[in-house]
Design a protein that fits this description.
The protein is of the alpha+beta class. It has one domain: Glutaredoxin. It contains 3 helices and 4 strands. The chain has a 4-stranded mixed β-sheet with strand order 2-1-3-4, with helices on both faces.
């Protein structure tokens, strides 16, 4: 799976990216993880807030998820 975090470059956006990257490094998810702070990426997806999580190109969450919500989004039990 490909997970992409779109953000404005703020601390919470970067923290979400780092959290997802850590989950991948720990083997809890099988994913490539990317981060973009390019405002055009947000605009092109029609996203009005940040951070946003895309999985395989589909927007699955806008806003900062709780840990439980993040695990559900990523399919971690």
């Amino acid at each position: 799976m490909k997970v992409k975090v779109l953000g404005s470059g703020c601390a919470s956006c970067k923290a979400l990216f780092e959290k997802i990257k850590k989950l991948a490094a720990e083997g809890k998810i099988n994913a490539t993880v990317e981060y973009s702070s390019d405002i055009n990426d947000l605009i092109n997806e029609g996203i009005m807030g940040s951070p946003a999580i895309l999985i395989d190109g589909n927007v699955v969450k806008v806003g900062n998820p709780s840990e439980d919500e993040l695990y559900k989004i990523l399919g971690i039990k």
